[in-house]
Amino acid sequence: MLSLLYQEGPSTKGIFRRSGSAKTFKELKEKLDSGTEVDLARESIFVTASLFKDFLRNIPGSILSSQLCDKWVSVLDQGNNEEKIKSIQRWLLEHLPRANVVLLRYIFGVLHGIEMRSEENQMNAFNLAVCIAPSLLWPPVSSTPDIESEFIKKISSLVQFLIENCCRIFGDEIASLFGEI
């Protein structure tokens, strides 16, 4: 999924914003969940993007760890960008399982590639963050709609910062994890 999103996402207007066919999504999700091999290259990239967001939403406790929710939300309240980046790197390395960190590198490699061609696909860091942030982190307990809305805004700001600074956070090689577009 990530490889397809990396290849096709940068040239796809509204990637992660538009949904694919709900029927196709459901059928493919059932096939994937049952272990059936699926050729996603034959499907709409929008269905693939929806499947990927669904995959992220189904990671128990979220990929950024709901237990660290308050810490992630407070990162952007810290001093300058350099301090924020150092704090994020520390949280990634010290508090998340290695598998989560590896997957995050690939996710942000894809998002960076899409953002670099935002004039073509209309998905700048802000737009991408709004679409993907709710799939990356959610609070450990449910709350009121107002509190949840405020939380989503904060997490979207965090994800936007991660996208805009991903090469400094994850390393410059993040831009070439999948090779050339």
From TrEMBL:
Which terms are listed as keywords in the entry? GTPase activation, Phosphoprotein
UniProt superkingdom: Eukaryota
Query: What is the protein's given name?
Result: RHG20 protein
Which gene is the coding source of this polypeptide chain? Arhgap20_0
Looking at the record, the residues that make up the Rho-GAP domain are 1-170
- Native source species: Spizella passerina
* One Pfam assignment: RhoGAP
| SMART domains per UniProt | RhoGAP
A single GO molecular function term of this UniProt record: GTPase activator activity
InterPro entries in the record: ARHGAP20-like_RhoGAP, Rho_GTPase_activation_prot, RhoGAP_dom
PROSITE patterns in the record: RHOGAP (PS50238)
The record's PANTHER family line, in alphabetical order, gives:
RHO GTPASE-ACTIVATING PROTEIN 20, T-CELL ACTIVATION RHO GTPASE ACTIVATING PROTEIN-RELATED
A Gene Ontology biological process annotation?
signal transduction
